[in-house]
Amino acid sequence: DGALASGWLLRNAHRPARIPDVLSESAWTVDRSIEFIREQGDRPWCLHTSFIKPHWPYIVSAPYHDMFGRDDAPAPIRSQAERGDVNPIFKGFQDHPESITFSRDEARLNVIPAYMGLVKQMDDHLGRLIAHLEESGRLADTLIIFTADHGDYLGDHWQGEKEFMYDQGVRVPMIVVDPSDGAKRGATSNALVEAVDVVPTILDVLGISIPSHIIEGRSLRPLLEGETKWSREAAIAELDYAIYPTARKLGLGAREARMVMVRTDHWKLVHFGKAFPPQMFDLHNDPQELMDVGGDPGKKVMRDELYGRLFEWMRERR
Fold this sequence. Notes:
Strand content: 5-15%
Number of strands: 6
Radius of gyration: 22 Å
Structural class: alpha+beta
Number of helices: 10
């Protein structure tokens, strides 16, 4: 049973890893990053520091393994209604082994403290990297972009991995430190931004012309300088799920097993293909995305508008 196997892999999450913190993935990543920066001397450089953790397997070195306990774990965001007559693609993902495992509180409460420890560990080592930049005099002229490629469900919406289009999966951190004189310090923004905005932002800050015929994102520089007007009205995310059990169980081919999300400030729609109804959420009245109105006849006008936005995005792809 896949769920039992998955649970077996997680049962030791509360124990310390068998290696010390100095040999952890996060420590190694920062050590190599600092080494690279030192090697560059006074030359310009660009560095992609890619932390592996927090990630499977959910186990962390001491002292991080017991910094947090079960009482620190937030309650799962899910409802019994999500277990009933729901979208068949969503139901398929709920039936994945990792989803079944994380639907059990015993597994959740054993893993989440370790996950939090992994986050703390990464944060501490990132602090070492920032301290090195400061000590070497490079913090004042270094653009820093901290973001992630996906989130983690950890039992929310009865799921256990990273896939699907709920905010737990697609709404990731983005912190930008811009050393430019025109940047606004300590500002926050609720603007809809995408991962594809990272490359044009870097090019813009460096004063390099953005090749708009191949770059789909847009520079975040106006937001960094305090601009409140932002032209993007909808964010897009895609997922090819052909390798997952749901696709095989539903008999979907590689070109069919694909979902696309369009999200505005108010609404989110997830398209699964002609054979399946979409998911749709009213984010103002249901911010936790617990009530799927994808099949509600009364929401047809808004559904059509969101599909129009998806068509516009596909028409303009580069």
